[in-house]
Amino acid sequence: MSVEFAEVHILSQQMNSELTDKEVAAYKLANCTKFQNMGFISPRLSDFERLCDQTVETVICHGNVVRIKFSDAQNLLLAPEYGGIILFHKKDGLIPEKFHLKLDFTDQTALTVLLTGMGIIHALADNDLDTSYLYRRDFSQTLSPIDKDFTFEGFSETLLKKNVNLKTALVGKDAVVVGLGNSAFQDVVYRAGIHPKRRASELTEAERHKLYDAIGSLAKQRLNLGGKTQFVDLYGGRGKYASVMHSAMAGKLCGVCGTEVIKLSLGGGYCCICPGCQK
User: Fold this and answer.
1) What is the per-residue pLDDT across 177-225, written as a single tens digit (0 to 9) for each?
2) Contact 212, 223 (CB under 8 A)
3) What is the DSSP annotation of 128-165?
4) In this structure, what DSSP letter does residue 252 have?
5) CA separation (Å) from 93 to 22, 28, 183, 257?
6) Alpha-carbon torsion 120, 122, 128, 129, what sign?
7) Rounded CA gap, 168 and 191, in Å?
8) How far apart are CA 40 and CA 128, in angstroms?
9) Across the chain, which distance is largest between two alpha carbons, in Å?
10) Model-level pTM greater than 0.70?
11) CB of 246 closer than 8 Å to CB of 4
12) DSSP state of 95
């Protein structure tokens, strides 16, 4: 289950509310050797030791990455992109058996982070933030769907410059927007009625409007409903947004036109589409 811009925004707001001004008393890493070898978790214990005795100043996010800013120019980057659970534990709260990082605070509360797929748990000083690929990708000049400056004019102008298929234009390091993964992408192009293999530069103005509106509609619904149904927020609550097009739809009938949904190979992965609705 991917954790995309909407879910990350929800987590960031919840963490900012709960963690600001808390001081780290201790940390614990567990069951993380494999993820450290893959570069998903900072390999040096000293990186996390620098968080001890530091105070959370604020929690912000952009795209799919959460940045917890501590005093003394220290940071914790969290991005459970392909699955993960981040939980806040009040005093005397039960700590889950499985986690990769646990931060204990001086007020006896705690934060646990578990990666279930690809993602990051990186402890970095301010000067080292740019060594993180995901930080460079998401905390960039590229806009997120929930940024106030994400306008149709800017989106349309940038999209027209992309002579690539829509998957490449909307998802990945060279995308015109940050925070969309394959899950959101399938929803967006289905809502817009556009085939994902279409070239971004060849879309009509009307089609670009449909795409922009679909992104905005998806963002609003996912935020209002607390994220996708598979998503678990900081307090263990489940999201209520059910994707309208997703990988499990292959072979089923489209709810709009009744055409059988098919699965396409695209951009190193798979994408489900309705051949009747998406042209």
Assistant:
1) 999 999 999 999 999 999 999 999 999 999 999 999 999 999 999 999 9
2) no
3) GGGG-HHHHHHSSSSPPTTSTT--HHHHHHHHHT--SB
4) S
5) 17, 17, 33, 49
6) positive
7) 18
8) 16
9) 59
10) yes
11) no
12) P
